Structure formats: structure tokens, C-alpha cells
């Protein structure tokens, strides 16, 4: 249920530079094999001020085994340069096109592990190594849209040229989100570097398992026939024609999809600073989906993936109310539950490429517990205790009316065995809500399952404006519940 209140009008000006909140990302893309990589790159570029892009590397894949297309990346960066002056009217922090051009590189010119040269690494592998070596406390996210042999080559080179301790430190700085396995390099990497944080639904290179993958929740409802409950309208070519393709120089570079819209986009969506902060933990869930850590059949070690343990019923699927009002449970729902919000946000940013500040919409600014920004609010409760969650002072840059939706994200949380999923109750009215701790653990489906010493609950606040398109910002509350003394 949504509750509406009038917003406090903020002065119309660009948001402050979000540099402190930017996540570092390097993209490996088999752009040129079909339209969806190019579509994803357009989206990435209109979020270039919200991320720290460390590399744009053209790669091969099972769909494009012999050639790479860095020239296509360069053409899109040129279009970005044309619209950058207008983007600066809406927010700060947009990199120069020349600096993005300097980040374009090419991975091995061949398919999979057969093309890897540990002693003569490609420009793409060297770019990855340089980015990972840069002194920075933030991890480097490797967003794998195609084959992973550039990453394999970088890791092979570091292993061949550095001592074991330096290799371990290098691997610890990396986080990987792969759109399935599009060559034989991904499985090899996971075997050879077992400590590497790797998000993937393992697959054969022929794409036969794609229909089960979480990432298809971005738009795969009709093609993969796996989106029961999802609303397809905002990912249809008809909607994209009006809201994306018709808008400026970058819109002209956004092609009509062949199979699905932007199948690679989930590999960076969780890095965007929307207030969900899902990059902090892969099990938290956000625009790019939610995963659990487990060892799928055929893997040599646990990875962040789909499925789960049927005994405690901790799985990667979310249960969501669909467009028809019915409940649906699926891995794809962990993405499509946010679809209207991330599509509207993209459409608004495309408006930024050619409209004035006054003619465009900008996302709400959420204040929670007196704290501005996008950070997680962490609270502690004992069983029987309660706390008031207070979003008063939230505002909208355009003076739009705001509505508030509070909900418990029941599936979000850490790995089983370490902490329970706390049982909490939420009563909301407008910009305030009361959260009560009922028990350390929610009731289990099987009697006798032990409850850990403490439990955690995730509460999401979604604040939406009434502008066009309607935009939503979030804040996450993580509440640890312990027994009453």
C-alpha cells in the first residue's frame, strides 16, 4: 500500500558528485554479435557519473569466436561525448569522452582458453590488471557480458609473474558477475581460483540453460517463457521506441532487440547507487537480482548462484506479487520485481541527454532516521521491542509529490547457519513505520530445525515521485534481532 505526502521542494540544481559512493566496474563485452550488448552499453553510459568505469573491453564468446568490436564501443562513447554537456545540467561527475576512450581495449582475438596467452597478455587483460592493481579500498567488479577469457588471461599472467601471496591479494580485489558461461574460460577460472567471488548460473556454452538463469528476469518473459507474473510492457520494443530510441544521440545507437532486451545489464545493475546497496552483499537482492552461495552439480567449489538448500528452504527465488495480483515465486522475480523502477530511471536519464533540468525528472532524495544519502541504516532490537522508522525530511529535486512504500524483504540476508531470518512485523503510515521484533527466527516449515542466536530482517523503503516518468529511490534498513534478556 502507498501513502502520499507533500514533498519538501528542493532547489533545482544538479546532485552533488556521488564519487564516494561509486562502485568500480570493468566490462567484458562481446559487443557486435547481436544487439543486446550495444543496448546495455547505452544504459551503462547514461550512468557513467554513478559508477567508476575502469575498462570497456571487447571480447569474443561462443556467439562470436574470432572477432571483437572495439570500434562499436568507440562509436557509442563518441555519442556519449555529444550529449555530455547536457548531462552536466542534471548531475555532476560525468567523465570526459576522451577518458572513456582511453579505457577501451580488446581481449584475446580468439575463442576461450585456446586463445589465452599468459606471457603475452592482450590489451584487455593488461587493462584489467592495471585497474585491479590501482590503490583503492573498493573492489573491482568484472561485469562479464560475453566470454571470460580476458579475465582468465589476466589471472594467468598474474599467477605466472607474481608470488603466491601477491596473487591471492590480486584475486581478493576482484568480484565477478557473469551472464552465464559464454566460453570455456569461466569454468576454468572457478576451478583454478577457488577464492574468487563469482556470481554465475553455470551453463554450457550453447546457451541451453539460459532460460533458467536469474538474469533473464531483465526482459526474457516472452522469449524464454519464464516470466509468469511479470509486466512486459516496459521492456517491449514499442515502449523502448518511445522512451529510449527517440531520445538524442545515444538513443539513436540503441537498436531493437533480436531476442531479449539487454540480457547483460543485470551484471552491473546492482552497482548503481539507488539506495538498495545490494553490491554490499550478493544475498541482499536488488535491481540485478539476488543469489545464494552453494555448490552446483559439476562445480568444484561454491559460487554465488541459483537454487538452494531444500531442507531449511533458503533459496535464490523471491515470492512477489505479479501484475495480475497473484503471488509468483521464481529466480527471475528477483529482477522483474524492480522492472518498472529501473526502466523508468533509464528513461529519465535518457531525457537528461537532451532536455533542460526543468523539463526532466530526477529521483527523490530519501532521508531516513535523520540520515541523508543512500547508506544502509543498521538497527538492533530485542524480541518484543520496536522502533519507529522515520523518513520525514525526504524531498524531491523537482518539487514532486512523494509516496512511500515500506516492506519487509523476507528473502534477503546472509548465508544459512550464520544468522537466522528474523520474524518482524511492519505497520506503515506515510513517511513513518513501526517495526516490531516478534522472534529471532521465522517459523520453520519443519519442527526441530535449530534457530541461531540472532536473526536479521531487511526492510526496504521505496520513495516514489509523481513526475514523468515516475521515479523511485530506496533505503534499506538491516535489523538484527536478539532474544529478550
TrEMBL record:
- Give the SUPFAM superfamilies listed for this entry: Nucleoside hydrolase
Domain of life according to the entry: Bacteria
Instruction: Give the matching Pfam families.
Output: Sde0182_C, Sde182_NH-like
Name any one GO molecular function: hydrolase activity, hydrolyzing N-glycosyl compounds
Limits of the Cellulose-binding Sde182 C-terminal domain: 386-481
Spell out the InterPro entries in the cross-references: Ig-like_fold, Ribo_hydro-like, Sde182_C, Sde182_NH-like
Q: What is this protein called?
A: DUF1593 domain-containing protein
Q: What is the lineage of its organism?
A: Bacteria, Pseudomonadati, Pseudomonadota, Betaproteobacteria, Burkholderiales
Amino acid at each position: 500500500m502507498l501513502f502520499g505526502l507533500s514533498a519538501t521542494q528542493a532547489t533545482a540544481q544538479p546532485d552533488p558528485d556521488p564519487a564516494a559512493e561509486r562502485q568500480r566496474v570493468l566490462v567484458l563485452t562481446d559487443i557486435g554479435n547481436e544487439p543486446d550488448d550495444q543496448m546495455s552499453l547505452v544504459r551503462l553510459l547514461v550512468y557513467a557519473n554513478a559508477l567508476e568505469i575502469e575498462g570497456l573491453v571487447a571480447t569474443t564468446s561462443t556467439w562470436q569466436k574470432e572477432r571483437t568490436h572495439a570500434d562499436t564501443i568507440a562509436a557509442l562513447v563518441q555519442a556519449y561525448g555529444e550529449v555530455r554537456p547536457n548531462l552536466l545540467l542534471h548531475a555532476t561527475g560525468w567523465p570526459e569522452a576522451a577518458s572513456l576512450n582511453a579505457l577501451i581495449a580488446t581481449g584475446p582475438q580468439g575463442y576461450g582458453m585456446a586463445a589465452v596467452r599468459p606471457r603475452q597478455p592482450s590489451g584487455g587483460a593488461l587493462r584489467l590488471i592495471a585497474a585491479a592493481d590501482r590503490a583503492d579500498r573498493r573492489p573491482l567488479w568484472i561485469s562479464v557480458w560475453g566470454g571470460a577469457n580476458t579475465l582468465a588471461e589476466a589471472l594467468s599472467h598474474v599467477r605466472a609473474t607474481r608470488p603466491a601471496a601477491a596473487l591471492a591479494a590480486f584475486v581478493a580485489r576482484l568480484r565477478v558477475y557473469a551472464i552465464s558461461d559464454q566460453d570455456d574460460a569461466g569454468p576454468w577460472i572457478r576451478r583454478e581460483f577457488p577464492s574468487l567471488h563469482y556470481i554465475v548460473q553455470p551453463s554450457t556454452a550453447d546457451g541451453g540453460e539460459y532460460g533458467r538463469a536469474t538474469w533473464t528476469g531483465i526482459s526474457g518473459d516472452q522469449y524464454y517463457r519464464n516470466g509468469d507474473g511479470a509486466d512486459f510492457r516496459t521492456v517491449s520494443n514499442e515502449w523502448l521506441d518511445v522512451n529510449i530510441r527517440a531520445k538524442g544521440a545515444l538513443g539513436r545507437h540503441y537498436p531493437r532487440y533480436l531476442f531479449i532486451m539487454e540480457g547483460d545489464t543485470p551484471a552491473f545493475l546492482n552497482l548503481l547507487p539507488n539506495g538498495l546497496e545490494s553490491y554490499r552483499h550478493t544475498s541482499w537482492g536488488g535491481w540485478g537480482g539476488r543469489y545464494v552461495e552453494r555448490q552446483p552439480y559439476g562445480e568444484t567449489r561454491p559460487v554465488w548462484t541459483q537454487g538452494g538448500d531444500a531442507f531449511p528452504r533458503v533459496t535464490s527465488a523471491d515470492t512477489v506479487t505479479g501484475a495480475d495480483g497473484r503471488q509468483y515465486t521464481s529466480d527471475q522475480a528477483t529482477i522483474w520485481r524492480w522492472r518498472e523502477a529501473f526502466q523508468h530511471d533509464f528513461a529519465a536519464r535518457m531525457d537528461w541527454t537532451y532536455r533542460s533540468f526543468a523539463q526532466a525528472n530526477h529521483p527523490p532524495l530519501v532521508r531516513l532516521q535523520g540520515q541523508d544519502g543512500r547508506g544502509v541504516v543498521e538497527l538492533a532490537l530485542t524480541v518484543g521491542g520496536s522502533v519507529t522508522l522515520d523518513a520525514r525530511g525526504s524531498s524531491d529535486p523537482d518539487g514532486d509529490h512523494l509516496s512511500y512504500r515500506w516492506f519487509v524483504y523476507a528473502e534477503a540476508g546472509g548465508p544459512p547457519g550464520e544468522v537466522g531470518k528474523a520474524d518482524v512485523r511492519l505497520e506503515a503510515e506515510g513517511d513513518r513505520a513501526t517495526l516490531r521484533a516478534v522472534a529471532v527466527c521465522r517459523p520453520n516449515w519443519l519442527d526441530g530445525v535449530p534457530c541461531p542466536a540472532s536473526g536479521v530482517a531487511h526492510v526496504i523503503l521505496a520513495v516514489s515521485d509523481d513526475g514523468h516518468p515516475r521515479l523511485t529511490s530506496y533505503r534499506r534498513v538491516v535489523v538484527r534481532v536478539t532474544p529478550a534478556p
